[in-house]
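Pair request: fold both.
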Amino acid sequence: MDQLELKNEVSDYVDSRMDYLWDLSNYVYSHAEIGFNEYQTSIKLRKNLYKF
């Protein structure tokens, strides 16, 4: 697999999960935590990374 094929494959993968990624992004935005204390966000991200 050359570099262009790999780039296209990764791009397709991300595109196929765009709705999920937007939902996750909106969650992070709407549950802002200050002072580098992102407890809720880190829990949410950790749980969701296992889906991939």
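--- second member of the pair ---
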Amino acid sequence: MSIGNVNNNSLKSLFFPVLMMIVSSFYMPLFLYLSNAEEAYFYDIFKFCLIFFSVTLIIFAGFFIYKRNIVKASFNASIIVFILSNFKIFEYVIKLLPIHLRYWHVLAIVLFIIVHILYIIYKFSSDSTIRSIQLVLTLVLSGLIVFNFILAVPNIIKKVNVVNTEPDNVQNINYSNEKLPNIYYFIFDEFSANDVVQKYYDYDNSAFYNKLEDLGFTVSENSENKSFETITVTANYMNYDYVVTDEDPSNKRLEVRKNNRTKNLMSELGYDINGFSVGNHLDYFGMVNDSNNGNNLSAITVEGSSINDLIIENTVLYPLLSDDKTQLATEINEVFDYFEDKNNFNQNDQTYNFIYLPTPHEPFLFNADGTMTNPKNYYNWEDKQFYLNQYIYVTNKISTMVEKIVEYDPESVIILQSDHSARYMSGIANEDKVHIFNAVYYMGQPLDEIKGKSGVNTLRTIYSKLFNLDLPDLEVVE
């Protein structure tokens, strides 16, 4: 349809050109939202819908100015944005060819295809033909969105029905007015127990365990949980109780972790709460510092990826995200460095320090000596060296860091835990994945009571002894 014909036709003739631009722009963000409906909210993807649609309108304007044809301009704009926003799918299909192709090769092929589609549309296709194709594609994409919405309805209902996730009131606490020790609670994601790295990586980390014991730590070498899902384990850690299982909706587990009993307990005890992590993780644990309200953060999926990242990873721009991990590496190192600096310790304060570090969990950023890994191996589980090198580097950083904490704050309590051992290397048995790293420094005193206990029961033992609470061991929930 040319511009001269617009006033002579019903507005109905514009319906499918406009609808196709909307559907092609919204399809990928909506698909990812509906696929992660338990964790995500529509506002997480709304900005991407607007960005993609704005790009579509800009491209449409360019083609319309060029040929003054609304039908072809809308079709071309829709096709270009759909392909580039779903680039990873097209890349996957092209890489099925029996030749080795890099990103730039695939990009050149995709652009070549787009140019020829545009040429065919303008050279050989009539408006009526384009309208027919437009109708079919719009109905197919709309149908897929509706189908995925129907599948997501149960998860959306679960999310709406999650109520009463606020933790129970902490029991009455009787304690003296004397200053309680500073607490340093570290969670290292996917830091394997020694028996696991020995069995699957042929690496013995006993020297590290021995050093911890020399510093006054009690190390439990046979602690395990019954889950290796991070949000389940950490939700239970933060509530020092088995409040959720893997079968609970993930949004419930996330909410219970965020609105946790630990923060209530420490607040009642008069602790100043300091949170340390990277990215947006502090908000997900409910440990955002007062100076950072944690608003406007993107939701995360069960595997810990933000919805923002998932959307970008599917577009033609994904190399900008996947290859730039320098900032993440810097932030991880900065947390370690903070606790090695004497100037950051004040024994006159009463602080509860919560530290969550998503390492040695993928991406594998560090070689054993701390240099950066090649980006192509950030997620390489098949070659054992990449997880192991990062594991060794993190071990060395923990070793140096806790030595400084013990030196600068010897009357403190230091809790070192992982949520699970290595998970994604092929061949690791589930019963080994649940083994955890579990070590406690209790003001220089032995704490043999934690040996053999799960992460939750270790925390209950510490809090019972330190705060004179009655928190008996719980049966470890499968």
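Observation on the second member. The radius of gyration is 27 Å.
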